[in-house]
């Protein structure tokens, strides 16, 4: 079975390129076994030149979480309004004053790094698993169906409704879960729905929560390779933290915006299922992870979704027989998630499959 999880890296044609070992199972090993690597293998070439893309720096919306949970009624209604605006205009915002202790974040990022530092042999237990396996690691996104690989290794762990972990405590996942649930209450209200609407309808008590640890080793040709290609996330909301090495970019009004996160903040983005539920009022946002040639970047994306057995379709309360017809058909979250995780990651192609034509 172990051999199945390995990717054979072809020897690149250009003579100046590295000579890869016979088989490579992750980017980390590719980099570490070729310390003098100056160019990337041809099957990692995503683009002829990413530096041609226009990238801008803009201020992202900032949401003060403490006002949602302990503000006065006035402050709360103001922040709900800001949350709605951030969802509608950006689909992406930064959350500050969220109450998740700094040391828990650090511990999680370190735990993630330590996992990637295990030997290939030790990681093999989790390698090459199916998308329904609660703990799996691998490289790129879905190496079994990809022609071009991404400069990224990952670990994915299901943490709710059942907690799994290769030996780590549940504290962090529980705390981010509380943050996500509170945000979803505010988002419900911002849509003109009851505070607990999303919680109840999406059966968040049994909501599917998956933690993805991403490792982006230094890349000798960062303008050619991609850590993660433009994509949207499948759930309702994703919370993301990283080790403060930039790389995340989001699409906003047709341009790529470089995300520089505030210290100790969560980057939050809307996933496909909030787009479906809100009938397109709040859209899932395209984002990508660039790589750099100097430092390893580690990020943790925690995706919060409905329960796996929920069939999600646009909220009837938001529809109107004349002007606002359902724009997405219903699909069970489990089927959607498996479809997205089992395909080539490419923009919003999974969502396109449930869009009403
Ligand atoms: C993801 C993701 C971006 C990043 O894991 O879905 O978009 O910056 N990660 O690591
Ligand atoms: Ni993502």
The global form is: globular
C-alpha-based Rg, rounded: 20 Å
Class from secondary-structure proportions: alpha+beta
List SSEs in N-to-C order.
Answer: HEEHHEHHEEHHEEEEEEHEEEEHH
Small ligands present: N-oxalylglycine, nickel (II) ion
What value does the average pLDDT take?
A: 89
Helicity, as a percent range: 25-40%
Distance between the termini: 42 Å
Task: State which percent range the strand residues make up.
Answer: 15-25%
Number of helices: 10
| Total DSSP E strands | 15
The biggest beta sheet, please? 8 strands, mixed
Please list the strands of the largest sheet in the order they lie side by side. Answer: 2-3-11-8-13-6-5-4
Please mark out the parts with pLDDT under 50 across 5 or more consecutive residues, or reply none.
1-23
Topology, element by element:
Layout: H1 27-32, E1 55-56, E2 62-64, H2 65-70, H3 73-89, E3 92-96, H4 102-117, H5 120-123, E4 135-139, E5 153-160, H6 171-190, H7 197-201, E6 209-216, E7 228-231, E8 237-242, E9 248-252, E10 255-258, E11 266-270, H8 272-277, E12 287-289, E13 297-304, E14 311-312, E15 331-332, H9 333-341, H10 349-352
Parallel strand pairs: 1-10, 2-3
Antiparallel strand pairs: 3-11, 4-5, 5-6, 6-13, 7-12, 8-11, 8-13, 9-10, 9-12, 14-15
Helix pairs in contact: 3-6
């Amino acid at each position: 079975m172990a051999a199945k999880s390995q990717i054979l890296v072809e020897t690149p044609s250009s003579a100046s390129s590295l000579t890869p070992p016979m088989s490579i199972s992750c980017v980390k090993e590719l980099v570490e076994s070729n310390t003098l690597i100056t160019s990337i293998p041809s099957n990692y070439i995503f683009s002829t030149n990413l530096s041609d893309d226009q990238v801008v720096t803009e201020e992202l919306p900032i949401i003060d979480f403490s006002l949602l949970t302990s503000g006065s009624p006035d402050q709360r209604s103001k922040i709900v309004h800001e949350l709605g605006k951030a969802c509608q205009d950006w689909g992406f915002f930064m959350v500050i004053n969220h109450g998740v202790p700094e040391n828990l974040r650090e511990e999680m990022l370190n735990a993630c790094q330590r996992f990637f530092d295990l030997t290939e042999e030790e990681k093999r237990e989790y390698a090459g698993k199916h998308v329904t396996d609660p703990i799996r690691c691998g490289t790129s996104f879905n190496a079994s169906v990809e022609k071009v690989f991404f400069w990224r290794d990952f670990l994915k762990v299901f943490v709710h409704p059942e907690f799994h972990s290769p030996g780590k405590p549940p504290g962090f996942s529980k705390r981010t879960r509380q943050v996500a649930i509170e945000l979803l209450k505010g988002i419900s209200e911002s849509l003109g729905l009851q505070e607990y609407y999303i919680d109840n309808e999406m059966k968040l008590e049994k909501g599917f929560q998956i933690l993805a640890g991403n490792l982006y080793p230094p890349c000798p040709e960062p303008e050619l390779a991609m850590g993660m290609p433009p994509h949207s996330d499948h759930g309702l909301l994703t919370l993301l933290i990283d080790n403060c090495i930039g790389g995340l970019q989001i699409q906003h009004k047709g341009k790529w915006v470089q995300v520089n996160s505030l210290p100790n903040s969560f980057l939050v983005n809307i996933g496909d299922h909030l787009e479906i539920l809100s009938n397109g009022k709040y859209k899932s946002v395209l984002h990508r992870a660039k790589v750099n040639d100097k430092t390893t970047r580690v990020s943790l994306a925690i995706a919060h979704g409905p329960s796996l057995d929920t069939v999600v379709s646009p909220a009837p309360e938001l529809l109107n027989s004349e002007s606002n017809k359902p724009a997405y058909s219903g699909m069970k979250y489990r089927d959607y998630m498996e479809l997205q995780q089992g395909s080539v990651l490419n923009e919003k192609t999974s969502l396109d499959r449930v869009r009403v034509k």
